[in-house]
Write a structure and sequence with these properties.
The complex is a heterodimer.
Chain A lengths: L1 H10 L3 H28 L1 H4 L5 E6 L7 E2 L2 H6 L4 E9 L2 E2 L8 E5 L1 H7 L3 E2 L2 H9 L3 E5 H7 L6 E6 L4 E13 L8 E5 H10 L11 E2 L1 E6 L5 H11 L7 E5 H11 L1 H32 L1 H10 L3 H38 L10 H27 L3 H6 L3
Parallel strand pairs in A: 5-10, 7-9
Antiparallel strand pairs in A: 1-12, 1-13, 2-11, 3-5, 3-12, 4-8, 6-9, 7-10, 8-9
Chain B lengths: L7 H10 L1 H33 L6 E6 L10 E2 H8 L14 E4 L1 E7 L6 E9 L1 H6 L4 E5 L8 E5 H6 L8 E4 L2 E10 L8 E5 H7 L4 E2 L1 E5 L6 H10 L5 E5 H45 L1 H10 L3 H29 L4 E6 L4 E6 L4 H27 L3 H7 L1
The chains are: A alpha+beta, B alpha+beta.
């Protein structure tokens, strides 16, 4: 107890310096936490996947569509318990900055495959019946102030023209991980719309699907069922590639791999910066108290005591600064996600991040004090006392 | 000896005397400047790569509202109408310099990690090659029309499996032999695979081209051509200068990286400024006697202020130069990422320009100024008597 009081009093002897160091620590630890949370948010799509869903797409690339008649054949494959399909619509709502995911789906089968999108029964039936209708997520509706019955206009990029949809339902996510910023429209509406135009679009035909979503009975069968499905269409006009939903989402994440790597590297650089600052502080502190340490040694305290004092003070400053930094991370995350808009549908500070922040603070405190503590424990008592007065 | 300014040697020597502190503080600032400069260099590299892709006298025609080549479709009859424009330049043999190009994305595995990524495959011809004078075939030869031969850009040949000279790539149900590798002078074409236009259309079972590129005989006739194409009721197309088209493709990614980097640098700079402030406060505190002596000798308050401010700025300059030096080493690194707008892989480099170097040093000096001002102000305000008493 005495040691703790001594450490605390010593730490605040030079109030300005200690406070400045703590400010630096707060900034560094909270920035570290924010960066890690950004990286986590990038993987949010991967976390929301289900192990019983597979995604089947064209083996050439995602930009090539698959024929609609594949649906019946995939459904008949052993191990498959459900199938649906989706086309990426890629429309723009007012400006490019209001980006959100829009999928043209077959509503009955799609919503059955994704039980985490929870919809009121009445709204669900209204959506099924109205081919011009759409369903939007709760967060998306809140962001743009949409209500049931509103008409929204989207400017198509892949499917040209202006498309109008009426909101028939607002879905809620089952848990915090579910993306509530998506919009679903009728696939049939898209197909009818394309057929009606003399189109020179990518496929030129109407009955094409972007991806198939396949539900399997047993998650362990995933590789086997994937192979079976792909074997069905080998050497056909549109060969397929089937993978687990997680692998599919990871494919998107790996597109931004370089940026993610850079953000992770940078989050460690900030820790290094604050380590340099803190090491500076502790070196200065140690140099100032040379005479005191010599006196302590002369009084009979072992060299280990001096080491304990320095380490203790450094760790105390680091832990207090780190603690405030962790507390500040949460409001910072809130502010960031508000500024980023629809870019990050899921943004949560995880427990692992908090643990890593605490660890970082400890490491900074320990490493900063290492060299001064070692030097001070070896001072010659006479040399040290010579510095008194 | 003027009593208005303290000699520079006094300032510089002080930094040398307290070496460890100087190194630690300058090191912290160097790291911040490194992050700042690297991010700006990344953004500039992306922009430079895409801007280098466009020619000032070429025009790119896409379907209206498409935004990227992969979203666009131009039917054969529409392409024929574009061919009939009077303003298209002709080459030495009297052929019109216009190229119909189908562009698709192909997911192919990378050489080192085996992870798949989207590569742009473009169907073109030797006229298409002539339209892009910055592209030169550096290994092998151009593909022959009507065959399954392809040529690959430098970055693709290096980064993707089966894309080197003499190797074979398999896609769209066929084997394609790489007969040449081309260098596109660090533009977006380095990340592409080129093959015969008609073969690509058949292989990918397309019925339409993605874009039509042509060269204007007279650079100033662009507005007239644009009006002609966009007013034609048979066509639903838009025409853009090639340079502008590619500049727009880089905008989203380059802006995103720049904003992210700036936000990070500002947050980091707070840490470095704190370090500088601590160092300068300690520096002032340990030299109280010297300050009193200097004042007693007749140096003015402003001289003391500028001396300590100079010390902070010199410290920041050292840190800034170290950080900039480390960042300039990044220029040897080749990186690639997926461009959100085109959804395909783009290889680029870090590019250090004099403007970025100036901005980084200015950033470092600003950190030094902010960190050093309050301690210097305090030093200047000390009373001579108190200083000499404390010494």
């Amino acid at each position: 107890m005495f040691l703790l009081r001594l450490l605390l009093k010593n730490a605040f002897r030079h109030r300005l310096r200690t406070l400045l160091t703590m400010v630096g620590l707060v900034v560094a630890i909270s920035a570290f936490g924010l960066l890690r949370t950004i990286v986590d948010a990038w993987y949010a799509g991967v976390d929301a996947t289900s192990s019983t869903r597979l995604i089947t797409r064209s083996s050439i690339s995602l930009t090539f569509p698959l024929p609609l008649n594949y649906a019946e054949r995939i459904k008949a494959v052993e191990g498959v318990s459900g199938i649906s399909w989706a086309n990426w619509f890629g429309g723009i709502y007012v400006t490019e900055r209001n980006f959100f995911a829009q999928f043209a789906v077959d509503p009955p089968s799609y919503l059955a495959l994704y039980p985490e999108f929870q919809l009121d029964e009445a709204e669900k039936q209204a959506f099924f019946r109205d081919r011009q209708g759409c369903v939007v997520g709760r967060k998306l509706a809140g962001k743009f102030g949409w209500k049931l019955g509103d008409t929204i206009a989207l400017r198509g990029t892949i499917y040209p023209g202006t498309w109008r949809f009426t909101i028939r339902g607002v879905y809620q996510g089952k848990d915090a991980k579910t993306d509530e910023q998506q919009m679903f429209i009728h696939w049939q509406r898209l197909a009818d719309g394309i057929r009606a135009r003399v189109s020179a679009g990518p496929s030129g035909k109407a009955d094409f699907v972007g991806v198939y979503v396949v539900r399997i009975h047993n998650p362990d069968d995933a590789p086997l069922v994937s192979q079976r499905i792909d074997a069905l269409f080998k050497n056909s006009l549109a060969e397929t590639l089937t993978e687990t939903e997680k692998a599919f989402q990871l494919g998107f994440v790996s597109m931004s791999e370089t940026i993610l790597l850079a953000v992770q590297a940078v989050s460690f650089i900030i820790i290094l910066i604050i380590m340099a600052v803190m090491a500076n502080t502790m070196t200065m502190t140690a140099r100032e108290r040379l005479a005191e340490y010599a006196t302590l040694k002369a009084l009979g305290f072992p060299p280990g005591f001096v080491v304990k004092l320095l380490f203790g003070e450094s760790l105390m400053i680091a832990l207090i600064g780190g603690g405030i930094g962790i507390a500040v991370t949460f409001p910072m995350a809130q502010a960031f996600v508000k500024a980023a808009g629809t870019l990050f549908p899921i943004f949560h500070v995880s427990m692992l991040t908090v643990a890593l922040q605490a660890l970082a603070a400890l490491v900074v405190g320990a490493v900063s004090a290492a060299w001064p503590a070692w030097k001070m424990s070896r001072i010659d008592i006479v040399q040290g006392l010579r510095h008194v007065a | 000896m003027s009593l208005r300014t303290v000699p520079l040697s006094y300032i510089a020597r002080n930094l040398w005397v307290r070496r460890v502190t100087t190194v630690l503080t300058a090191g912290g600032m160097a790291l911040v400047v490194y992050v700042f400069a690297t991010v700006l260099m990344m953004s500039e590299g992306i922009r430079a790569t895409l801007v280098a892709t466009g020619q000032s006298d070429n025009v790119m025609v896409l379907r209206k509202g498409a935004g990227a080549e992969i979203n666009s479709g131009i039917a054969r009859n529409q392409a024929a109408i574009i061919d009939s424009l009077a303003q298209i330049a002709t080459d030495g043999q009297g052929r019109k310099l216009v190229s119909h190009e189908p562009v698709v994305l192909n997911t192919l595995p990378k050489r080192d990690s085996g992870k798949p990524s989207n590569v742009t495959v473009r169907g073109t011809s030797d006229i298409g090659l002539a339209l892009r004078p910055q592209v030169r075939i550096v290994q092998g030869r151009m593909f022959r029309p009507g065959t399954s031969e392809i040529i690959t850009g430098r970055a693709v040949a290096k980064g993707f499996a089966g894309a080197g000279l003499g190797e074979t790539m398999r896609f769209a149900g066929r084997d394609w032999v790489v007969v040449g590798v081309f260098d596109a002078s660090r533009s977006a074409f380095d990340s592409e695979v080129w093959g015969d236009s008609e073969q690509m259309i058949q292989a990918f079972r397309r019925s339409a081209f993605s874009s039509v590129v042509f060269r204007l005989a007279d650079v100033d006739s662009f507005e007239a051509v644009k009006a002609q194409l966009e007013d034609d009721p048979r066509l639903t197309l838009e025409a853009k200068r090639e340079v502008k088209f590619y500049a727009e493709q880089s905008e989203a990614l380059a802006t995103f990286i720049r904003l992210l980097g700036l936000a990070l640098s500002i947050i980091f700079s707070i840490g470095a400024v704190v370090g500088a402030m601590i160092t300068m406060f300690a520096s002032v505190a340990s030299r109280v006697g010297e300050i009193g002596t200097l004042r007693a000798l007749g140096f003015r308050r402003s001289a003391v202020l500028s001396a300590f401010l100079g010390e902070a700025l010199l410290l920041a300059l050292v840190g800034g130069i170290m950080g900039l030096g480390a960042a300039s080493l990044m220029q040897t690194v080749n990186i690639s990422t997926v461009n959100f707008q085109t959804f395909s892989e783009l290889a680029f480099q870090f590019r250090l320009t004099p403007a970025i170097a100036m901005q980084s040093l200015a950033f470092a000096l600003t950190m030094g100024l902010v960190g050093g001002f309050i301690p210097a102000w305090r030093a200047a305000r000390l009373k001579i008597v108190d200083c000499l008493r404390a010494a």
